[in-house]
Design a protein that fits this description.
The protein is mainly β. It contains no helices and 16 strands.
């Protein structure tokens, strides 16, 4: 097992058993804000203020992919099955989603603020079955996105439902 520690733009991996260095990574040119491991322990996702998300093979410290996320990295979350990674950016109104077998984009989930003073996502969390994604917004809003076209948003003391699919006809 490994312990990952970031310092500025550097990332260090240490063996937990004896705390000796396993490897160092220098894939970022700015402060690292994201360090997350895939559920199967094969991949490490790191993101930084240089608007990049880097995917590394943990077994051999090989960079597998680098994605431009268009804004400072805030959080990345692998789905429970490890097939998807969602990436939040501090100054973007969208969450970027990638498939993990090819690291290609699946698209974005939009609507998280509309201007510099209120847009951005700071935290993400999938539920255990991967059907819902909790989103922590820049201005303290929290929403639960139901994977697919429909979702429920929760704002503080009240909630609203936005129905965007065919099931709204019989709701």
């Amino acid at each position: 097992r490994l312990l990952f520690v970031s310092s500025g733009s550097l990332l260090f991996a240490y063996w937990i058993g004896n705390y000796t260095s396993a490897w160092n990574m220098t894939n970022h040119s700015d402060h690292i804000r994201i360090v997350t491991v895939s559920p199967d322990g094969r991949f490490l996702a790191t993101g930084s203020n240089n608007n990049k998300l880097v995917i590394t093979d943990i077994n051999n410290n090989t960079k597998l992919a680098e994605m431009d996320i268009s804004s400072d990295a805030a959080h990345a979350e692998f789905s429970p099955d490890g097939g998807t990674i969602a990436v939040a950016s501090r100054r973007s109104s969208s969450i970027r989603v990638y498939e993990t077998d090819t690291w290609s984009s699946l698209g974005t989930i939009s609507g998280f603020g509309s201007s510099n003073s209120n847009r951005g996502v700071y935290s993400l969390a999938f539920n255990s079955d991967g059907e819902r994604l909790a989103v922590g917004w820049r201005r303290g809003y929290v929403s639960v996105e139901i994977v697919a076209a429909d979702f429920v948003r929760v704002y503080g003391d009240f909630s609203s439902t936005l129905m965007e699919d065919s099931w709204k006809d019989w709701y």
